[in-house]
Amino acid sequence: MPNTSQPVHRTALVASAVALLGLLSACGSESSTSSAPQPTKAPRSTGPDTGTVTRTATAPAVTTAPSDTAGSASAPARTDGRCHTSELRAAVGRVDPGAGQRNFPVVLTNTSDRTCTLYGYPGAAFVDASGSQLGPDPERAPSSPRTVTLTAGESAWSGLSFSSPQISGARTATPAALLVTPPDEHDPLKVKWTAGEVPVGGHESSVSVTALEPGTGP
Q: Model's pTM, two decimal places?
């Protein structure tokens, strides 16, 4: 009877060897794959030397016209032509009585060496010797203000009026001075008052002033 164990044993050995070689090959492949360094991706550059540039949108420049352009009809040249308190002298003219009224021209004269302008109503207040105001501020009489241009030495006037206290029966006081403030100014001019008593309270005690106009009075 023939012996068949030896061929079978050899076949098994060959198969085992082939399997072992395959296993070793697989392990070697995994080892080389896991140990090999992975390529590093270069960072994306925004510099000028690369082919790929990331661009950021920017707003267009805005050009604005200057707010005060010489020669522009909408932007007239700025001038300070107003008469200031320091450039003026105040005076009170003679009384002009009529129909129970007492009317005085209050005159402002340009004492500077430049031309300046006045527009509107002057401020006025009667004060006693201590500087305390007597009576309320004068009212503005209805009139049409206009710009008055004064060259050096020229004058403008405003009418100061009140009812005669002897007729109105108003309470009176005798002021020491009249304070006159030019339009748009804060500092007053002090004028000595020599025209007697004025109404300061009670019925018919109001005093009024008119807008300034050229000259020294009617």
A: 0.63
